[in-house]
Amino acid sequence: MTHIGQPLPRAATARLVAGRGSYLDDVSARGELHAAFLRSPYPHAGFRITGTAAASALPGVVAVLTEAELAAVCQPWQTKTGSASGMVSPTQRALAKDAACYQGEPIAMVLALSRAVAEDAAELIEVEWQELPAITNLALALHVDAPPAHQGLTSNLAWSTEMKGGDIEAAFAAATLVVEDRLVFTRSTGVTLEPRGVLAQYNPASQALEVRISHQMPHQLQRHLADLLGVSLARVRVICPDVGGGFGLKMHVYPDEIAACAAARLLGRPVRFVADRAEALLSDIHAREHIVEARMAVDAEGRILGFDVQDVQGLGAYSIFPRSSTTEGVSALRSLGAPYRFSAYRGRLRSVLQNKVPTGQYRSVGHPVGIAVAERLVDLAAAARGEDPLEFRRRNLVAQAEMPWVNPLGARMAELSHQQCLAKLEALLDLPTLRNEVATMRAAGRCIGLGFASIVEFTATGPEGYGRAGVLVAAVDTVVLSLEPSGEVTARASISEIGQGTTQGLAQVVADAFGVAPDQVLMGSGDTATTPHGGGAWASRGAAIGGEAAWGAGRKLRAEVLAAAAALLQCAAEALDIQDGHITDANGPRMSLAELAETVTFRGYELPTGVQPQLTVAHHYRREQDTALTTNGFQASLVEVDPDTGIITPLRHWAVGDCGRLLNPLLVEGQVRGGVVQGIGEALFEACRYDESGQFLSGTLADYLLPMAGEMPDITVAHVETPYSGSVLGAKGAGEAGTAGAPAAILNAVNDALAQHGASVSELPITPGAILRALGRLA
Amino acid sequence: MKPARFDYARPATLAEALALLAKPDTAVLAGGQSLMPMMNLRVARPARLVDINRLPLGEIALGNGVLRIGALARHAAVLASPLVAQAAPLLPQALAQVAHAAIRNRGTLGGSLSLADPAAELPACMLALDATLVAASAARGERRIAASAFFHGLYSTALEPDELLLRAELPAAAPGWRYAFLELARRHGDFAMAGLALALGPGAARLALCGVEAGQRRQPAAEAALAAGDLPAAIAALGTAEAMDSPDLPAAQRVHLAQVLLRRAFQQIGAAHAAA
User: Fold this and answer.
1) B193 to chain A: which residues are within 8 Å by CB?
2) B154: contact with A, CB 8 A cutoff
3) How far is residue A432's CA from residue A434's CA, in Å, rounded to a whole number?
């Protein structure tokens, strides 16, 4: 292997940085119409559309559509999953019918010759609104007097579950130390550079729907479009061109996107909808709204005995389709304390409907919540015992000899390297020196904190995850390879590229598996017409699952090519190899791949009878064991708090991770850094806020604070490589670990700083106001 | 996020511009860094725009002890001007904290002053520098307005709807005066949670806040205390500021931050001033 593991730059980089990318809005269709939506200004209201004549009469308007029109071509949908049986999530439609249940829910759409005209017309639609009581505050949503998020519901509890194992009562009875805290997580969202967008065309003659869309999983969407719009699956083509970021928010079924496709079907004209930034912030999924009350029992030797956790999770108005927002709560509880040895666990999750935009899967689903809670408790325990927080962790980390480890929740963890990652982190930080620096800065009156987080992440979910729940999400992938007459290899992968660079990693795998340079492998993905059905981009699965498919396809193509070459060269295939684009034997190159491919393609008569080389091969990969691949790591954060202003400045950040075999360290480090920044954003800046009446307050990027380069610290990244033994390449998921651990590290660092003043905070994001209140500088 | 329909005119002369401004429901387009987002969000819906970018209103000149900055002078130009650095050293301190380079390349002095955003840095600077603002209308010609009489409150100024701000005139920095502009924002370039422009002279002080009160104004009680060298009294005087209140940023927090800034500003220039 000469290319796997190399920090090669992405093949797409030159094209993308030169402005030659092709994102959704870079392509237009002849005769296309622009869609604009009338969205509910109220968090909860009944409505009746009383007039569309003025809107329709505006020059340039082609159609004004409501639920009544779309119903002819578009089915409603309802989120159901076996992993949350009995969940209450009302039926959803492309355009709301009779009642809007969150601010921003689309209730009507205008199709016009320009977006500006469509927006003008949307303002002219006449609506009678009947405002209804709204529930947005998570802490109040389960109160007996809380108004229902949907009319007719008797409770806002959508689903609850208890995850438990071991004897929790005994664990707490035996404890010599119990630490507890209540942590509040404010909604945030994954702000992609490219907002959601779709260009849909329906050809009535061929009954075919073609949908270009900025999305993470073309095949999943193909299935839902076929079902909802009544088009046969094979006649739905979904194309995801260059995608300017996904982070999980582009993996759901959104009403406005379905409405655009339905309108194209209804009108027989191409329909474009591109969310502007205000619409994106208002209608993209939000994530991670939790109130967690947690206790941890510790024995006299400082060993963790158990966790007792109550999590209330905000779903918004619906549990997101198709994967269900409850996944996040379950993932939060599963990741809580996962690095540690303990014997009892009780976690109660209550998932709650609210009159807010739905929450959904967002990078590192649930993990940042669970990890922040556990790591906060661990720091509290270490402080109560008067010991170093890393020593407390070291004692409680599951040892390599104990793996595979199945914790009391039934979460199985294998091949983790907690001890090596911790040792690497300590070396990286040069901990004695760093602690001296911290002491010196504190002696000079600065309020400095150092925080740590230990992480286990469940990645690269296999078929059991959604399959057993009856949710139609593919966890398998296929790579198709063709040897072209030029000797180049074209590849088509059901894994999708959303800016994370996965296709570069796969090209390196194909290159090594087959025997060419990576630049001779041209990767294609993101088109249901050219790639077999597969999972796309979610759960950090590209390398772990797509990589295996790429490897298998490369080896198959190699076997085909060597057999053909052996027939032509009249030798045994076993005596031949493929190196750097040539068929070689012990004496060196015998023929180039181009010569071989030309012979097969243009001069087939030269081949012996019965030799039928398959220069196009496909390999499908399905992992047969391990529901998820566990990864682990440590993060550390050094922060400064200004006690006068409450402003927090992250000074340094370190991340050590073990994602198994690194296909391309440059890509992994980019993912880790980006993930850490998103985690710092979640910890210090980003918040989707609503006022008590349900008005959304974070509707622009002046109000929704993204972390900016100027505020970010230097981030040092290091790796431990423990290859997954169950696959050829040994890669595990890498794309979300940075986000998983950064909020916990920041929270602990800030609390370490505040501890000097006898103060603490427990709400994310940590605002300057919260710091000032904690310090008693502000009432 | 497209603006509602509007008419657009781009006059070549001041007289034409003023004639157009006499029509009702007309907005002036200068750098567009506030107006265009507000129009795109349909928060602002003027019937017509008068684009003044072709008017010769961007000059920066110093003469007879007065610094004149044209209304169309871009923030970047003011920030880079040696004349400004010499005659109004407060302004570069403030402008370095105004948004980001791309916005400073387009945004103008006149735009910022005419909008009177409570968080904007430049109104506070004009107050602390005792500027005179010169406006003109077709009907009444030029008039001169003291900065202390120009800002009326939230997005409200002394400008009449038919008036265009032409320039600011600032007395050049006098010997013995020192200046500090400080602000606090969660990210560099954001609207300030609180900001402060301070000019300290021999036995005199001028102080204005931004991001605290809805309308920017001088703080006479704090100024008097500062003039007497009584920092604690000045800080206490800011406690009576009528600060804006929002869920994310309560009034008490803004006032607290203004007080922190005053202490820091005084430590920065007051001590040196006392020594000098």
Assistant:
1) 768
2) no
3) 5
Tell how far CA A562 is from the center of its chain: 40
Phi and psi torsions of A122, nearest 5°: -60, -30
What is the CATH topology of the domain spanning B178-275?
Answer: Enolase-like; domain 1 (3.30.390)
Backbone phi, then psi, for A319, in 5-degree steps? -80, 125
Domain positions in chain B: 7-47, 60-171, 178-275
Of B1, B191, B250, the CB nearest to A769: B250
How confident is the model over A40-52, as pLDDT tens digits?
999 999 999 999 9
Q: Give the side-chain half-sphere CA count within 13 A for B100.
A: 8
**Shortest CA distance from B258: residue in chain A:** A645
Tell me phi and psi for residue A275, to 5 degrees.
Answer: -65, 130
CA distance B116 to chain A (A): 18
- ipTM for the whole complex: 0.96
Which residues, in sequence order, are CB contacts of B210 under 8 Å at separation 6+? B118, B119, B120, B121, B123, B124, B183, B192, B194, B195, B196, B197, B216
Residue of B nearest to A773 (CA): B253
Architecture of domain B60-171: 2-Layer Sandwich (3.30)
Chain A residue whose CA is closest to B255: A778
Which domains are delineated in chain A? 17-132+192-246+249-283 (3.90.1170.50), 290-463+625-774 (3.30.365.10), 476-621 (3.30.365.10)
- Cis-peptide, bond into residue A765, ω within 30° of zero: yes
Inter-chain Cβ pairs, chain A and chain B, closer than 8 A:
60
CA distance B206 to B128: 5
Q: What is the pLDDT of residues B77-128, one digit of tens each?
A: 999 999 999 999 999 999 999 999 999 999 999 999 999 999 999 999 999 9
Cβ–Cβ below 8 Å for A778 and B1? no
